[in-house]
Design goal:
nine-stranded mixed β-barrel; alpha+beta; 298 residues
């Protein structure tokens, strides 16, 4: 009898929790907030406990202005958000060869470089992983912290992708490891700054929608700062002597916490090859003037 009563109490408590207004709501980042979301966000912010070492939660780019670089290739005054808008250093002969061979078609690419998807070779068009740092800034990113690693879940398309940052003090020799789309990353704390050094990146991924390349020798150095409960700042330096003549030093990128924390979830977003090809044939290719690879209008 005691066990039955105990089970009943647990079930009643569980039912009360799941029937509470806050727990019953599921919110998504972006878009206009409902009255329920506004109320839940205000309640969440009032309870936020600030810890500079706690990066958990869903973060969105703060929409800071990206400096417009003077480059005749841009054509439509469309700034590139890659590396916080910092202009790339001069390329090596190998890097320039790769850049010229890349034919972008994504919306964020410069008009002067953009081609119809059927004529392009952006990995996105085949549902290949975007890699890093291209995934950063395309949409919200969630940080999940465990005692031994930090997980970044990117929700900016074409797929929900996960990057691991190991924080357990391990050492890695990426020369003995296969390259990965999101590299091999090691992190440690220096005061209130998270320092992340990574390498072992698959060079098939582009750095951004304009087709800036990187080689499998690319190394990234990132500094994460969490100056207040609602703000996350990231700066990174890219070093790839095979592709660029000197390090590419990025501008600070600022992100804001999405509220309500703990009740907001990422959209499920996957690149389905059949859907991607159908969209290309019905929308992107006709818009780019490539009627030979377009679906006939009905």
């Amino acid at each position: 009898m005691r066990n039955r009563i105990g089970s009943l109490v647990v079930l009643l408590i569980g039912a009360a929790v799941f029937q509470s207004p806050a727990a019953a709501q599921v919110f998504f980042p972006g878009g206009p907030a409902s009255d329920a979301q506004k109320a839940a966000a205000a309640a969440s912010q009032a309870k936020l406990a600030y810890d500079p070492h706690d990066l958990s939660g869903i973060w969105r780019g703060a929409g800071q202005a990206v400096p417009q670089i003077k480059d005749p290739r841009i054509g439509d005054a469309h700034a590139d958000p890659l590396m916080g808008g910092a202009p790339p250093p001069p390329m090596t002969a190998w890097g320039k060869e790769q850049f010229d061979a890349n034919k972008p078609s994504a919306a964020e690419s410069w008009q002067s470089r953009r081609v119809a998807p059927a004529l392009g070779n952006d990995p996105l068009g085949n549902c290949d992983p975007l890699g890093y740092p291209r995934s950063l800034g395309r949409g919200p990113v969630e940080f999940i912290q465990t005692p031994g690693k930090i997980l970044q879940i990117f929700n900016g398309g074409p797929d929900m992708a996960t990057r691991e940052i190991f924080t357990d003090g391990r050492k890695l020799d990426t020369d003995d490891l296969d390259p990965r789309w999101y590299g091999w990353a090691l992190g440690h704390w220096e005061g209130n700054s998270l320092i992340v050094d990574s390498s072992g990146y698959d060079e098939r991924a582009w750095l951004g929608g304009n087709g800036f390349p990187h080689s499998d020798q690319m190394k990234l150095h990132e500094v994460y700062n969490h100056p207040d409960a609602m703000t996350l700042e990231i700066t990174m330096t890219l070093d790839d002597a095979k592709a660029y003549t000197k390090p590419w030093v990025g501008n600070k990128q600022t992100f804001k916490l999405v509220l309500p924390k703990g009740l907001t979830v990422l959209y499920e977003e996957y690149c389905v090859p059949s859907e991607e090809q159908s969209f290309n044939q019905g929308v992107r290719n006709p818009a780019g003037g490539d009627l030979a690879h377009s679906r006939p209008l009905k």
